[in-house]
Design brief:
The chain is mainly α. Among the domains are: 356 residues, no CATH class; 102 residues, Serine Threonine Protein Phosphatase 5, Tetratricopeptide repeat. The chain has 33 helices and two strands.
């Protein structure tokens, strides 16, 4: 919102000084200063300027375009295999719980992107930058329609400000960029309706607002923001003209908010000791958070993916300090509302847009921190508009140089900050450098290390996470999993059992405990564990596969087949399930049915020594020794230390009379795995 001194008579944006006679309340007002700013650009120039905003955004976010996925991008947001069909699209809308959050439009958008470029991160990152640039352009158009000075500068500040990096460089936060486009589109359509009272404009605005709510519930603040804009421009709000059209919007907003609160508690985990906050704690957090966010807007240094979590219960000085400061500021702005109404409007817009994340409602990220950059993605629009308007009122030349320098500096900071989102290793290492006590970052870095085949390194971070937070079920589960991978299943069991004791419904911990039991030869207990994991999470493909594997290991490949088939249905790209179903089919004399599974597994992972080894062994069992030898050779090329591959290759070579070569591979197998 523009903030400038008001004289005896006002015109244009409320708060801009001008001469001349008084203007009646409610009349359309024309600006007297910076008229060129408010003149609509010719269509060609507007498109050129929009492309310029896009170019600036692409340049500032260059490092994000080559980034991968982090944290809950997969499978929390990028459409998981079980939903990659028309039936899956129906599930996204009709089955709450099918996706991490019930944002069906968002997940439908991810569904379409998955069809377009599968699991390649580049497409998702590019779309996110394009959405952010589109939101910046819509921001400019909305401000221009409201006759706010510096509309184009405000859009550039939004496009390049580093506090938006978390929303733009993190694929999961496409919910922010997409909902912002819909939010601003709805605002623009409503402003057109307010000027002409055309039903079509109202219908379009309402539809866009509903779609925004189906993308992210924080957009529920829009109807209140529109009433605030009405007050700022005209000095009053009329019930019939201004409030009545927005009554349905408030109804939609309330319904969406209740649904989201239910999902946060019931499906995502916004419950437990971390959320047992007193009323005083919540007031203190709500008083402190806006100052924190404003500070990051004014000085966007030391941005962190996960900020340190403020201590609770909150001390009395902190409560009274931030609470008193907030009340004093709002009181001062209220007293000055006639002279500088834009200041109060901006403060109310900022606080109101932050309201869903101020601590009065429990949201899952509060486990880690009460503040996050992505919480202020919409809220920062108000202060940035105010800053741009103030710069513009200083004079065109000064605004050009100062604004240009600010955009350039912010762009450089954004480019640097976007680079920290390249991958999990980079992001969590950067987080720990600025927040060493972040137990979540230790856990997530450990998970990235384990997935990269470095479980021993992962254990060090998990132990540190558990030192910082002893009752951390996810870290206990991951520690147990890594110990099992290292052949230390007996050590893993106590950690996994502790994770289950802390969180009985933790399906992954039940699955990992069962794996450890299977490694210890306790197959009956293992199968019970896999079944419990499936009871808790029927769509757990890995638990389904592991149950089938435990059955097959006891010599019942036919009984294992349905479980392998169900695991593949849940995850069509599950190569281990494809290979093991093919082995089971081969062992039950159905080799012809097994071949497509072997071929599919190798198409997915052509350099898998295990898949080549098992396919070669199956080919030898049906007498296709030449083909078996080809796959066996490929297996030992890929993994020269695979004793089983050497043994199977030797067997196939011996069958075709290549005894000397077969002997060499038998000897190598014995060296790698001596008989006990």
């Amino acid at each position: 919102m523009a903030a400038v001194r008001r004289g005896v008579a006002t015109c244009g944006v409320r708060g801009i000084a001008c001469g001349g006679g008084a203007i009646e309340n409610g009349a359309e007002m024309q600006p007297s200063l910076n008229r060129a700013e408010h003149q609509p650009l010719p269509a060609r120039a507007a498109w050129a300027w929009g492309l310029g905003v896009l170019a600036v955004a692409l340049l500032a976010y260059g490092p994000a375009l080559s980034a991968g996925f982090i944290w809950d991008d997969q499978p929390g947001h990028v459409t998981r295999p079980g939903l990659r069909s028309l039936a899956g699209l129906w599930q996204i809308w009709a089955e709450p719980g099918a996706t991490q959050q019930y944002y069906p439009l968002l997940h439908s958008f991810f569904w379409l992107q998955q069809l377009a470029w599968g699991d390649a991160p580049f497409g998702y990152h590019l779309v996110n930058v394009l959405l952010h640039a589109t939101a910046a352009c819509l921001f400019w158009i909305v401000l221009a329609r409201l006759q706010v000075p510096g509309a184009r500068l405000a859009a550039l500040l939004f496009a390049t400000h580093p506090v938006t990096v978390e929303s733009v460089a993190w694929v999961s936060e496409q919910k922010n960029t997409l909902s912002a486009v819909l939010y601003l589109g709805a605002a623009l359509s409503y402003l057109r309706f307010a000027a002409g009272r055309r039903a079509a404009e109202y219908a379009l605005a309402t539809a866009l607002f509903a779609l925004a709510l189906l993308t992210k519930t924080v957009t529920a603040t829009l109807p209140a923001a529109l009433l605030l804009v009405r007050w700022w421009r005209h000095g009053r709000i009329e019930a019939r003209r201004d409030v009545v059209p927005l009554v349905p919007w408030f109804g939609f907003a309330m319904a969406a908010g209740l649904v989201t609160l239910h999902f946060e508690k019931s499906f995502i985990g916004a419950a437990g000791a971390e959320f047992a906050l007193s009323g005083a704690d919540r007031v203190a957090i709500a008083s402190r958070a806006p100052w924190f966010y404003l500070g990051k807007l004014l000085w966007p240094g030391q941005l962190v993916f996960i900020y340190p979590r403020w201590e609770v219960p909150v001390s009395v000085p902190v409560l009274w300090g931030f609470g008193g400061l907030t009340v004093a500021l709002l009181g001062a702005l209220w007293l000055a509302r006639r002279r500088w109404p834009a200041l109060l409007a901006t403060a109310l817009f900022f606080g109101g847009s932050l309201f869903p994340a101020l601590g009065f409602f429990d949201v899952f990220p509060f486990r880690y921190s009460f503040v996050a950059d992505h919480f202020q993605y919409l809220a920062c629009l108000g202060p940035l508009a105010l800053a741009a308007a103030a710069l513009t009122e200083l004079g065109r030349l000064r605004a050009l140089w100062t604004g240009g320098a600010a955009v350039a500096a912010l762009g450089v900071l954004t480019w640097h900050q976007a680079g920290t989102y390249r991958d999990g290793f980079t992001l969590y290492t950067a987080t720990l450098a600025r927040n060493p006590a972040c137990w979540m970052a230790h856990n997530n870095l450990a998970e990235a290390l384990a997935n990269a085949g470095k479980p021993a390194e992962a254990i060090l971070h998990l132990e540190e996470a558990l030192r910082l937070r002893p009752d951390f079920p996810e870290a206990l589960n991951n520690l147990g999993d890594d110990l099992t991978r290292l052949g230390r299943a007996a050590e893993a069991l106590p950690h996994l059992e502790r994770a289950i004791a802390l969180q009985p419904g933790f399906a992954a911990a039940h699955n990992n405990r069962a794996i450890a039991l299977a490694r210890l030869g306790r197959l009956d207990e293992a199968r019970r564990g896999f079944r419990e994991a499936l009871r808790l999470q029927p769509g757990h493909a890995q638990a389904r596969f592991n149950l089938g594997l435990s059955i097959a290991q006891e010599g019942n490949p036919g009984d294992a087949l349905p479980h392998f088939t169900e695991a593949i249905r849940l995850d069509p790209n599950y190569t281990a399930a494809l290979v093991n179903r093919a082995i089971a089919l081969t062992l039950t004399n159905r080799f012809a049915e097994a071949v497509p599974d072997f071929e599919r597994a190798l198409a997915l992972e052509p350099d898998s020594a295990e898949s080549h080894n098992h396919f070669g062994r199956a080919l030898a069992l049906v007498g296709r020794y030449d083909d078996a030898i080809a796959h066996g050779r490929r297996a030992v090329e890929l993994d020269a230390r695979n004793a089983d591959a050497h043994r199977n290759l030797a067997h196939a070579l011996r069958q075709v009379g290549r005894v000397e070569e077969a002997g060499r591979h038998y000897e190598q197998a014995l060296r790698l795995a001596p008989p006990r």
